[in-house]
User: Fold this.
Amino acid sequence: MSLGGMHQIHGRPEALPLSASPLFASTDVDEARARVAEVYCDHRLDPMGRGRFEARHNRLSGRALSVNVMTYTAKTMITPGALRDFYLFQYPLSGHASIANGTNCHEIGGGRGGVVNPEEDTCMIWGEGCAQLMIQVRREALQKAARSHFGLPTGQSLRFSGANDMRAGEGKAFLGLLSYAMSGEGLLGAGGLMGQQLETMLMVGLLQTQRHNLSDRAAETGGPLPRAVRLAEEYMRAHLTEVITLETLARAVGVSERALQAAFRAGRGRSPMTVLRDLRLERAWQELSHPGPATRVTEVAMQLGFFHLGRFSEQYRRKFGCTPSETLRGAGRL
Assistant:
């Protein structure tokens, strides 16, 4: 069923998308709060209307994100505080909701959706019969996509604002992609390369269709990033374990070293070699958080060109908030 035909479902369970992936259905407020908290975060759940309360939640999980469809039949206040670990895109399929996310307050529904930021305290009021399509995205995954495709500077937070009309143009195209992801083709959550690419496309779609603090930069450059930066970073990712110099990058991209440095300053606010270091740190995090039997911190660092282990550990800690050894220990090996 396409999302375009889902605007008047009035909470009917048989009409909810993702019916093949039910998480729970309950008429008990405490049970509903506990089940939602298991996959989102702890929160208060307070029905406000006099109507019968029923909650239903369908969920399809991937590696970096999950697609969810939820409904509360009664008018309901949800108070989670700060989401902390994830961003939450919300798009009502029926009804409306009021969102207060720090100073970012907006109404969604009638073809408009928005994203809740993880750092600010949040309170939401869902109207009676509101059914919402939501994408829960791991904070670090969406930040990484924003760095890769929109030039989010290191250390800067990605912050969304307001509600966005999704009924035409890129918004409509994004909903079409989301409808495909929910269609039961088996890509999302399957763990294969195509599933991962689909998740990346959904994250880029959110960044492209929702207003955030990088939107003006994208508009000024006429696209997400200058072409030279995109090509240089593609080369970096394909050769992270090899020796890469500024000369190597400029030759691979087909521009002068000075032009490449200027493109990175305009698109990233950083030098090419600083971006390369961050990409290598991110690869190190991937290796250490998903280790094999023989994975060791020293070998990972050396393979990626970090020959001063103390400096590698400090750069890693500044970027991820923990040491390489702590990442490996948390993944079950040291």
Summary: The CA atoms of residues 57 and 182 lie 14 Å apart. The first helix runs from residue 29 to 39.
